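ERR on first pass: missing label on line 2. Operator R.T. fixed the label and resubmitted. Corrected input:
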Amino acid sequence: MLDIELIRKNPDFVKERLSTRDKSLVELVDEVLQLDAERRSLLKDLEGLRASRNAKSKEIGALKKRGEDTSLLEEEVKKLKEKIELYEEKLSFVEERLRDVMLRIPNLPHESVPVGEDETYNVEVRRWGKPKEFSFEPKPHWEIGERLGIFDFERAGKISGSRFVFLKGWGAKLERALINFMLDLHSRKGYKEIMPPHLVKPEVLVGTGQLPKFEEELYYCERDDLYLIPTAEVPLTNLFMKEILSEEELPIYMVSYTPCYRREAGSYGKDIKGIIRQHQFNKVELVKIVKPEDSYVELERLTADAEDVLKLLGLPYRVVLLCTGDMGFASAKTYDIEVWFPSQGKYREISSCSNCEDFQARRMNTRYRDSQGRLHFVHTLNGSGLAIGRTLAAILENYQQKDGSVVVPEPLREYLRTEVIAI
RNA sequence: GGAGGGGUGGCCGAGUGGUCGAAGGCGGGUGAUUUGAAAUCACCAGUGGGUUUACAGCCCACCGGGGGUUCGAAUCCCUCCCCCUCCGCCA
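pass 2 clean. output:
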């Protein structure tokens, strides 16, 4: 959520920044300004009425103590009460609308973010590793995996539908090895390992920004009014929802492995083959809660920590700075890390590292008290470190051999106790 | 799932219809004392919102959430949520 005061005091700046994402957002700002003015005018009247009611009720109390007659005053307060109720109704209507509009406005892009309406305006900031030259035509990961008997898409379709998979044998083991490898790596670097709930309340998803705008992306359990998490970012970032942290507690670094559940509505036809886009996938997620002045340095470090996973696994990648039009709803600045897929001859997203500044903190109401005793919203960051399924796919493709076997990257060997996965 | 108990400020905890935004304690801040610290003493401090140049003053709201009774609710009623204890069930 944006700071209403910023919108009020500097509407043109807010409009300018938002329109770099999407021109139509300007209308929402105008709506906010109008509703906010309405709200304040109603509130002023209402508070005046309440003040006089309070004063008169107090007087009644005093008069009664002395045994005097109060029926006239009581009659007056009764009339005031009706008027108050009317104003309260009007006000809560306006406030509800204001809140709803506010919750649908995305974060302001940071000034260092390139302006552009789609991914063609993203800027590559660095590359690491050289794509391997194959002496044969590199196969897509699903062909490699099916031949090795480690993917079973058909039976997954039978029991769950499309975009699900059974990982079997070495596939399941490799997935598990990657989870452990990444958790171990990040916890050694000072991230605290967390196992969060996978089902969360609606307000939690409002906190991180998935609700109210992206409801159709989420799995929902109606009987219990709970949502399946689309990423560990949701429970981790919200861990300190509605809390006031002390300055010494910051920064907080967390790492978590969870499955992610996404309906992938509106992605029909995209990546139908393979395990790139699934309704359920595993991910190791990094979340940081920091002081505002540190958040941009922390974003660079977070991104570097995610990159380390690929470096250690020897997978070529590049880092892309997303443009304004391609960034997620809550983010002020995002780096995507894209890993090389030989069969596609392309880099594909495997991690997304974002600084949300105080956007989520406002929604969650997570603050900290500084040494002067003042309250500030924290800044929140998140990044995949990394998406497990896509890492597994990248390993299959980058480490495939002519005979269909796959070499196990060095750091995973101690977890898998094998150097090669063959039929 | 059943029975009972409970949710009050950063924390603990008193408060059962009218100067209660809320006693007291801890923790915090400022000052005094001290060479310094501890201890002691004095004083200051909730959060959000409105008004405003103002973190001054004034006003409004907030005692788990929502609704109700009343001239007036932290206090009474309804409802939901959460926590604790016991029983049942269960990986």
